[in-house]
């Protein structure tokens, strides 16, 4: 009899408890499972601004310039050869097959940088200089003077010392400058060489050329 009385009350109370639990119980754990894990974003490596700038500013490598030189005299294959700017005299000799057995290379500067249209003349052992007929000198084209010009870009020390005011030390300084800095572009560039001032240049300017 007592159980029957409680039964009247327990059924409505159970229904009310279920409704209350559905309305007021927090659903945080279930919702969290639907959200993406923020730690996944932390594991992604994004490029920095500096990395993007460095990648965009990579220098463009220019191909080397082509030069053409004429190798004459005591080499195995005298001819005109196509080389690259920055190569040395020894590279032109190698392209021509090397020296003949009777070549005299003592006065040649193997470390000299090559220039376009250069003429390289290799004398024979015992040959005397009218090696000035080679790339080191050229005729002025003046029928009155009949003089010759010394090419300061390819003349050796002996030929440079034929110029007024140029002794062994200044001749060596000229060769060192053009080996390290490249060919003289104008005659006036000679004043950039240590020890050669305006007075020295004026005394020899009419006797030199850069081509």
- Average residue pLDDT: 75
Q: Helicity, in percent?
A: 25-40%
Lateral arrangement of strands in the main beta sheet: 2-1-3
* SSE arrangement, N to C: HHHHEEHEEEHHHE
Précis, in short:
With 211 residues, the chain is α/β, with parallel strands linked by helices.
Question: Which descriptors apply to this entry?
Answer:
single chain; 211 residues; alpha/beta; Ubiquitin-like (UB roll); DNA polymerase, domain 1; 3-stranded mixed β-sheet; 6 strands
Structure description:
This protein is an alpha/beta fold and 211 residues long. Among the domains are: 67 residues, Ubiquitin-like (UB roll); 76 residues, DNA polymerase, domain 1 (Orthogonal Bundle), CATH 1.10.150.310. The protein is built from 8 helices and 6 strands. The chain has a 3-stranded mixed beta sheet with strand order 2-1-3, with helices on one face. It has a 3-stranded mixed beta sheet with strand order 4-5-6, with no helix packed on it. About 8% of the residues have low confidence.
Topology:
Blueprint: H1 2-24, H2 28-32, H3 39-42, H4 49-56, E1 66-73, E2 79-84, H5 89-95, E3 119-122, E4 137-139, E5 148-151, H6 157-160, H7 168-181, H8 198-204, E6 208-209
Parallel strand pairs: 1-3, 5-6
Antiparallel strand pairs: 1-2, 4-5
